[in-house]
Amino acid sequence: MANNDHSVPEQLEDIGFFREVWQQIRLVFYLLKDREVPIYLKAIPFVGILYALFPLDIIADFVPVLGQLDDLTLLLIGAKVFIEVAPPQVVARYIAQMRGDATGRIIEGTASDVAPDGAAPGINLIEGEIVEE
């Protein structure tokens, strides 16, 4: 009788990876439709799609698995780069929408989880101000 305890976390990791890819695809779709994202940035995902469709590749498509893997990798990298260079407030808005955040509020600024000297637990430093959680 084999012990399958190790296979469950591996399956969960696979589900997490595919869920993240699906959310990334949805986010790219939302960002492509948004008017606040500059049009020149919207070309980034299409360059990845063109590479996948173009007959000349880094690794030819007739090579089993590796031929398709380089196409998929470039599509994912293109999507990730597009999300990273898109306006952060727009990305944050759509991430909150996808997570089901009812408030829809975006808090701008930088936050640090390092409390100033002598601060009580549960207090974070945000833009130089001490804010209680």
Describe this structure in words.
With 133 residues, the chain is mostly helical. It has 2 domains: 7-102, no CATH class; 109-133, no CATH class. The chain has 4 helices and 3 strands; from the N terminus they run H-H-H-H-E-E-E. It has a 3-stranded antiparallel sheet with strand order 1-2-3, with no helix packed on it. Helix 1 (7-33) crosses helix 3 (66-85). The longest helix is centred in the first third of the chain and has 27 residues, at 7-33. The mean pLDDT is 74.
Output the keywords.
133 residues, mainly alpha, 4 helices, 3 strands, flat
Write the layout of secondary structure elements.
Blueprint (H helix, E strand, L loop, with lengths): L6 H27 L9 H11 L12 H20 L2 H12 L11 E2 L10 E4 L2 E4 L1
Helix pairs in contact: 1-3, 1-4, 2-3
Summarize the structure.
The protein has 133 residues and is mainly alpha-helical.
H/E topology pattern: HHHHEEE
Report how far apart the termini are. 50 Å
Strand content: 5-15%
Tell how many strands the DSSP assignment holds. Answer: 3
Structural class based on helices, strands and sheet pairing: mainly alpha
Shape: flat
Biggest β-sheet: strands ordered side by side in the sheet: 1-2-3
Proportion of residues in helical segments:
40-55%
**What does the largest sheet look like?**
3 strands, antiparallel
> How many domain modules?
2
Low-confidence stretches: none
Give the assembly state of these chains. Answer: single chain
> What is the gyration radius calculated from CA atoms?
21 Å
Give average pLDDT, whole number.
Answer: 74
Helix segment tally: 4
